[in-house]
Amino acid sequence: MSARFSLAAGIALAALALPASAQDIAITNATVVLGDGSAPVEGGTVVVRSGRVVAAGAGVAVPAGMQAVDGRGMWVTPGLFASITNLGLVDVDAVSESNDIAASASPFGAALDVAPAINPAAQDFAYSRAGGITRASVTPIAGSSIFAGQGAMVDLGVDYDAVRHPRAFQFVEMGERGADLAGGSRTSAHALLRNALREAQSYGEDAELIGTSRTRSGVSGSAVVDSRMVGTAERDGDVLLTRFDAAALVPVVTGEQKLYVEVHRAADILSVLALREEFPALDMVLVGVTEGWLVADAIAAAGVPVITVALSDLPASFERLAATQSNVGRMVDAGVTVAIGGYESSGDHPRNLPQQAGNLVALNRIPGAAGLSWGEAFAAISSVPARVAGLGENAGTLTAGALGDVVLWDGDPLEVSSAPVRVFIDGVEQPLDNHQTRLRDRYRTLERGDLPPAYRR
Amino acid sequence: MGTKVRAAITSALALSLAACATTSAGSSSAEAETDFVPYASTYESYPGVPTALVGATVYDGAGGRIENGVVLFSDGAIVGVGDASLAIPADYMRVDGTGMFVTPGVIDIHSHLGDYPTPSVAAHSDGNEATDPTTPEVWAEHSVWPQDPGFSRALVNGGVTALQILPGSANLMGGRSVTLKNVPSRTVQGMKFPGAPYSLKMACGENPKRVYGNRNRMPSTRMGNFAVNRQTWIDALDYMDEEEPGRDLANETLSGVLSGEILVQNHCYRADEMALVLDMADEFGYRVSAFHHAVESYKIADMLREHEVCSAVWADWYGFKMEAYDAIPENAALIHNSGACVVIHSDDENGIQRLNQEAAKAQADGHRIGIDIPDEQVISWFTLNAARAMGIDEMTGSLEAGKMADVVLWNGDPLSIYSRPQMVWIDGALMYDANDPARRPVSDFELGQPGEGDTK
Hints:
With 457 residues, chain A is of the alpha/beta class. Chain A is 25% helix and 20% strand.
């Protein structure tokens, strides 16, 4: 890595080593999006001070002495929150040595933790930042166990301090993928999951990790104490999990760490929700949920939030037969909390989140389809995923006191023709250049110069 | 037709087959007696009514834009396109498109629908005959499952009226493509676009060398890729020099390319490799119709213009493999700006539903670096330019009198995220109407399943 950096020029990478401090920001005359589900407000103002939002909306005054940016013709929004990404875990998917997404030959499952593997200098960080993504969840993909391991919450600020909440959630695969990893059947996936939670419970009690709040943290959805590193209780020989895996699942079974469960088929969703009868403390988030609309009332009644792609509409497998772009809208109508996140195609990336959200607005004009209002659609890629991620009410919105993550766009942010003009994270303006912008500038003209293109930078 | 293989069969059989094959107007029974067309198209358009689209903004696909335009079609063909003054015959059904937009039917030059259908189970993996690095003898149409639910999604969400199904890219020469009308049929022959030429799918770079190198077979390197390709062309030329060449499926395809009847669609990411392929084409006397994926076309857009080769590209896919590392979102705009031909393609059962949105993204990325491409030209990226690179532009791809009435009425600006097809006609037949659930195709696979007939 160091060789790569010593060779690389570019503002973004240079700035990586020198985090700037928060600045005061005021943007006036812009269309302001609060991110809380409300409709955009024209002619609004946003004020950010010391890294936090002071005020946003119509009739907001710019504090005396603060220089304002004229946002006429532009839109101001909170930064987007991208759920279920592999930001910083991979440079090139098909270059296996650059790819830390899945550990298919690892002896561990639940114990895997993405936090120390995340590389904020990966280009996808920069591309996503330029697309207005300011925070994200980073998840491992299951490789050798139904348990993918522990995901983290990151910010996309241009520094090495990306991981804000390590071990924010555990990720488990149920459904077809879980069945495959478990040895060929959903029966095994369910047995493995129950056994793992029982082993964790037992280990946690023996090691006095349960009942003493040793894993409890101040941040919702984030285990500050690494449960793997505490407790030395002896274990019976009759166990499947390694000690490290069992320890990692202690905060899951106590409900101190969220459990993300990927599941798609309606029947599978109900089976997963039923787990809470046996393990009442589980703090679950459903991921995928392609057939969620068929059992939306049950999901809503369980109060379990959902993270799903917006545009899955093909029976890609036998657990996704009822796929429809109306899935999100119908679940929201039933009272389910739904964040848009995750990706369908190999070419899809976090910066296309607004395209997913915008398409759901388009559905409102298709008879028989269920879409989202503009405000709901934007919230589904900002405040809703931030809340599902455990960041509370202060991320993904421009309400007073919220994190100073602000994006200035050259138009309607859900429209495919729009892009960020300026991006602030915690009140710090971010560079938007990257490998792609450098290539773009180098090849803007193909006229033969005095020297080859390799000298243009 | 791309291939008219003289087969040793009885003329009676030829005649009976030809009688079933109601293909393009050009295939007279006299030709059928001598030129048997194997697996001929049996596509027949469905009934339509003479229709006048009025009041909409019309993009003709050829770079024209008409506000408050009129599009007339009847008997499967475009009759006239003009402004509000165009006379509308009395017997035409008027469709009020006020506030809406009309474009030619969307065309995807790079699809695997049918040969990699959903559900994406292993039993459906029919797109790569990855048992030999050159398989020009295989034909994609022999893999296409007409019940792929993806065809219906491409129609109703994407306005796709024609598409080219390509073999995959495991092989240097993957086989023949097939161009389809996006009209459901019990058979692939019933979807085949009448009169469309065949293409040979070729692939550069990582995929062939990885697939065969991993088996310790040639090619395992990019230079191996070229050596195998060149020797294969040399052998094909030898075949063509034979006085009475016997049947040889591979060489029939290759000689079709070398004689100009079969087009070449070449999967190729890197600029330097595309430049080498252009030289290989010169060496053996064939033309590349389009480079597909072509994420580095922006580095050699001038060469592509000079060679009149299209680039069939995504708007912004990048990074999934090493040869896609230098992909940039401004690629399409930079190619267009150099005067070379841009086609927006999908290579994806989801992306095919949003070619219009991908084009709009690419247009906007150009605008931000000072390249302003008018909407009416961007529309051609997924209509006429695709048709040209597929060799069907005399028949479809633009709204011109005499062409097939493949038409989309959009409920808003097709370059906006908020717009979707309102109605889609193929050969003048109304195949989709957002307001009419009965005009929404449902594949056999989806009958009786949860979500059958849903809006999707």
